[in-house]
Amino acid sequence: MPRQITAFGNPLVKRARSLRDKRHRRQEGLFLAEGLRILTEARDSGRLPIELFYAADSAAHPLVSALIETVEAKGGAAIETSHDILAKLSGKDNPQAVVGIFAEFITPLAALDRATSPIWLVAERLRDPGNLGTILRTGDAVGAGGLILVDECVDPFSVEAVRASMGALFTVPIVQARWAEFLPWLRSGPGQLVGLSLNSDAGYRGASYVAPTFLLTGNEAQGLPATFEEECDLLVKLPMLGRADSLNAAVATAVTAYEVLAGL
User: Fold this and answer.
1) Residue 29 has what pLDDT?
2) How far is residue 179 from each of residues 2, 19, 148, measured CA to CA in Å?
3) In this predicted structure, what is the pLDDT of residue 40?
4) Residue 93 has pLDDT above 80, yes or no
5) CB–CB of 136/253 below 8 Å?
6) Would you say residue 72 has pLDDT above 80?
7) Pick from 103, 132, 150: which residue ends a domain?
8) CA distances in angstroms from 235 to 42, 112, 239, 255, listed in the order given
9) Which tens digit of pLDDT belongs to each residue from 16-61?
10) Is residue 2 very low, low, confident or very high in pLDDT (cuts 50, 70, 90)?
11) DSSP state of 121
């Protein structure tokens, strides 16, 4: 039977709340995900929370009751609680009906099979969790084989990144690697490295894309380092017809990814 927690000082509530902090996530190897859509997406992809917190008045919802049943059947804990405690866990005044605690999962670079998809997304020193989550959603939408995070990127398991991914965190494999690891791996097999850069005369439309294409997006503020651009097989840019000098990193990735997909 599901247990009930109504006290803010409960150790499980305190531990779950601490996972909003990166240091605690790394220590525990756990992260928070909130929302019925995201947790249902996780379940459908084969990942279940080890602990599921849900509002008492939502238990009758068929998707919530299905989550509770599945979590308990697999040995997890279903915990009935209040909206106030859910707000404390999520950091939002209008919390979702469910919050789950999941074990972190990262795919090793060596485990990737580049033949599984014609397009892969690569992000270098990405800093904004909203951008990371949105790029994950793009990866899901275009059927990317995965998202490879190069060097010191924002934590993909932060509450903000998980929220922005809208469930794509659970459907798109995530790899973390140093550039010095990624480049030799890439060159050990087929793969065209395409960099998004303003330092190019080649437009993103009509470029010669070759599968599998690894689409590389640089840091939001600085773009790709020159040494990274030199390693690319192709540099492409999006035309800027207004006063802005560049697009948001996630938007530029999405626009180019669909063009790559159309050209393969």
Assistant:
1) 96
2) 46, 28, 10
3) 94
4) no
5) no
6) yes
7) 103
8) 35, 24, 13, 15
9) 999 999 999 999 999 999 999 999 999 999 999 999 999 989 988 9
10) low
11) E
The DSSP bridge partners found for residue 194 are: 215, 234
Residue environment code for 132-164, b if the CB has 16+ CB neighbours within 10 A, otherwise e: bbbbbbbbbebebbbbbbbbebbbbbbbbbbbb
Structure-token pair, residue 129: 């969790």
Strands 147-150 and 119-124: parallel
pLDDT at 89 > cutoff 80: yes
Global pTM value: 0.93
The Cβ-side half-sphere exposure at 260, using a 13 Å CA radius, reads 34
Can you tell me the distance from the alpha carbon of 74 to that of 48, in angstroms, rounded to the nearest whole number? 8
Cα 7 to Cα 12: distance, rounded to the nearest angstrom? 10
Q: Please work out, in degrees rounded to the nearest 5, the angle formed at the alpha carbon of residue 182 by the alpha carbons of 194 and 188.
A: 85
CB atoms < 10 A from the CB of 86, how many?
Answer: 23
CA-CA distance, 223 to 195, in Å (whole number)? Answer: 10
Whole-number pLDDT of residue 18: 95
Q: Are residues 192 and 259 in the same domain?
A: yes
Note whether 98 and 123 are same-domain residues: no
Q: Final residue of a domain: which of 69, 103, 137?
A: 103
Residue 206, helix vs strand vs coil: coil
How far apart, in whole angstroms, are the C-alpha atoms of residue 122 and residue 143? 14
